[in-house]
Amino acid sequence: GPAGSLTTEFPVPSGDWTQVVPAGNLPAGVTTYVSNNNLDVVLLDGSVYLAFRTAPSHFAGEDTLIHVIRDDTPETPGPWEYELTLYTGKDLREPRMFVMNGSIFLYVSELGTDLTTFDPGRVFAVARDPGGTWGKSRDVFLDGTIVWRTKVRNGQVYMTGYRGGENIYQDRDNSGGLEILFMTTNDGWNWTGVDPEKPVVLTGGVSETGFEFTDSGDLYAVLRNESGDVNGFGSRLCWAAAEALGQWDCKPGNDPHKYDSPFMFRYQDFLYLIARYNPSGPFDTAPGEPATDERFNLNQTRYSTTTKRTALYGYDTAQPAIVPLDILPSNGDTAFASGVWLDDDRLLVFNYSSDFSGPDMAWIEGQFVGSQIYSAILDFSDLKR
Fold first, then answer.
1. Which residues, 6 or more positions from 85, have their beta carbon under 8 angstroms from its beta carbon?
2. Could you tell me the pLDDT band of residue 384, with boundaries at 50, 70 and 90?
3. pLDDT exceeds 60 at position 8
4. What average pLDDT does the chain have?
5. Does the model's pTM come out above 0.90?
């Protein structure tokens, strides 16, 4: 990719983490279960809107709820106002929000209820009009697409998504079988490829895709390669030039680490990533070798039975490479961050984790024991050079 930030220079912000969900200042009517995890957040007219998943466990089930709550004083956590609850009797995940023309659009992926499988169904959306009323839900994708990240830059809405999620777990064939979509919308409901001729920008074993733009408009992305392909497992690092955002190029091979639930953001000239961190080492047990069923199962078992953290990384665009910078308070089942800028130097971040005041627990244990949602203001203002 184009030359960018150097490895040694990333400013590393700090912040104090506060538990947000469950908490005593949640509105009446917001039921929470033990597992509070997938989330997204947007800022509109000085208020922060938090959408989050709550369920009896991390795994699929029919008792899942998506709540949306509002905080009119984002400088201090809460009190929260009630906005919306979604329930369909199926598993709901990946709440994704963006603001367009004064309306908030909320996208949700509906999956099956089987504990052990990943069954993409439909993606539906609801919108909150500028007057504050949430409208009826509308189906947007019925082809197994999972909407992963949405972002508004210079008035344009961008979205990464993936198709073929069922090929990660129950229908694997070692060749990948997943497609990455990079799309845009002019009305919040109807999507086309950023390159209208080519909405699919990458195929292989990749799924969750975090992305961000440099000041000059070039795009950088990190893509989770959990399913594996000819390059093995881990993550892919890709980029696109500002004048051809639908044409992605990628660093050959994989980074053997798997950056689950990637959230990218930019501060000044620096690109950052918040994602899951695996203290026990790289996800891929034999980096660079083509994927096999045996290694997929070995990777998954080792990953599930060791503890996890959420980490702040720098995205070194000159290499490109992912540089670990800081481990955030986290434990067990953790990492699904999102954030909004309160001003030029302060990023309000939300993330989920199992209890990090207690002993280490394995990821699988945390998925059953449960998790809470926390927030912090990452303050860069002390770090100006």
1. 29, 30, 65, 66, 67, 68
2. low
3. no
4. 93
5. yes
